């Protein structure tokens, strides 16, 4: 059994990375305080499509990390089989019928990695995964990945926080803006806008899209490609769809209580950011997203808007995750990645390992923050 090198950790951010890491540290017997500007999951984790996958093409290291992430969710599902917020009913994807279509190349790549994949003609989809209007699938066909799934991140975060509290963890909500305190060249804790200081041997910054700007305040660099995200939730509707759909004009994910959540790149581009830093979403954009979803679903049902979330979606400048300690500031760790849902559990586990033991985990070797300084 490895001995902990730290006794007290402060985490800024109560999204999936912050809460997952906090729980893993608490399981190791470390005193942990999570500080959040509002309620848990009030940022990017609360408006994530949360598709659990490693489909299409990416670096080998990133693929391995995502597969480890999916593995942890499978273990969780085995332990909580009745959880309605976690499902493994597969994912179905198809591309537009134009020169951007990469279905054949993506399928061959996935097969080369032994990533479970089926290349289906449009008329074969219904037998494999029901609920899709075959007329919407382009002639190049679709890829069905049986091992993929989805998670409802706010509900998962609630489950993790319940155990965190049982293990003596402290959650501070509605604290206002918090920042990492650096003195003598190392991180000493976090302070809030109200002046409260939380001391820690280590600080983890897990504030989603705010990470690059916050580390820049300490003279460090993480390249940022963060766009605006828009996630729409429908009212309950009875439909046979259980797989996650990733289509040219809309992505659809089942949600608890017969709801669906939707997003699309084009709808995010229509969001207007005001000079005050707020976001405006036109009714036509919301109606268009619901219409696009209806078009690809069996029976083309009428979908009604229940609500939506809008804000910034964390994406590093090179698209790859950023995990680990800032080389220039001992005790200052960061977590910044687009694939928050897929990596949520494994990132918390590996970050807790590094924080508690002081050792570098090889799975995170390609995702260190100093790669941007080198660039």
UniProtKB/TrEMBL annotation:
The keyword Oxidoreductase applies. Coiled coil: none annotated. Pfam families: DAO (PF01266). GO terms for cellular component: cytoplasm. Residues 8-352 form the FAD dependent oxidoreductase domain. InterPro entries: FAD-dep_OxRdtase, FAD/NAD-bd_sf. Gene3D superfamilies: D-Amino Acid Oxidase, subunit A, domain 2 (3.30.9.10), FAD/NAD(P)-binding domain (3.50.50.60). It comes from the Bacteria. Keywords: Oxidoreductase. One of its GO terms (molecular function) is oxidoreductase activity. PANTHER family: GLYCINE OXIDASE (PTHR13847:SF289), SARCOSINE DEHYDROGENASE-RELATED (PTHR13847). This is Oxidoreductase. It comes from Sinorhizobium fredii (strain USDA 257).
